[in-house]
Amino acid sequence: MKGQTNLSRRSGVYGFRIAVPRDLRCAFDGQREIRRSLRTTDKAEALRRAAAERVRRWSEFTRIRRTLNPERRGELSAEEIKRLIAAWSASVLADDDAHVRRQGTYGGNRA
Fold first, then answer.
1. Average pLDDT for residues 72-84, to the nearest whole number?
2. Strand, coil or helix: 2
3. How high does pLDDT run on average in the chain?
4. In Å, what is the CA distance from 25 to each residue of 38, 42, 86?
5. Can you say whether the dihedral through the CA atoms of 53, 56, 62, 64 is positive or negative?
6. For the chain, how many structural domains are there in total?
7. Is residue 48 part of a domain?
8. Would 1 be classed as within a structural domain?
9. Residue 32: CA atoms inside 13 Å, Cβ hemisphere, count?
10. Judging by DSSP bridges, how do beta strands 13-19 and 7-10 pair with one another?
11. What percentage of residues in the chain have a pLDDT greater than 70?
């Protein structure tokens, strides 16, 4: 997943884009992609927001899959687990990086 940011930029403002998995398109009225403005022109902030949005969307996809396939309830594929872990890790690291830039201290030193 290295390098995957899901970022787009239009008129200087960053946006988030993610493909809707084929098996879930019926739950999204046939949409192939979800787009959302991140409402920032700062790339570092956009990366942090995109990582958090990626976690939210993958969680939403998992929830919908459980609804559509009740026999799979609570069961994630190895690929889904890898994607969720990578997205969560990226979100935590981006949050810590943003904190260091704002406060000048590592996030682990927060009270």
1. 75
2. coil
3. 84
4. 23, 31, 23
5. negative
6. 1
7. yes
8. no
9. 0
10. antiparallel
11. 85
Q: Tell whether 78 is covered by a domain.
A: yes
Euclidean distance between CA atoms 69 and 22, whole angstroms = 14
Four-point Cα dihedral 60, 86, 18, 69, nearest 10? -40
DSSP 18-87: EEPPGGGGGGGTT-SEEEEE---S-HHHHHHHHHHHHHHHHHHHHHHHHHH-GGGTT---HHHHHHHHHH
CA–CA–CA angle 106, 108, 109 (5° rounding)? 75
Domain presence at residue 81: yes
Q: Using one digit for the tens of pLDDT, what is the confidence trace for 82-101?
A: 888 888 888 888 877 777 77
List, for residues 16-40, the tens digit of each pLDDT value.
999 999 999 999 999 999 999 999 9
Report which of 106, 105, 6 is spatially closest to residue 55, judged by C-alpha positions: 6
pTM, two decimals, is: 0.61
Range of the domain at 32: 7-109
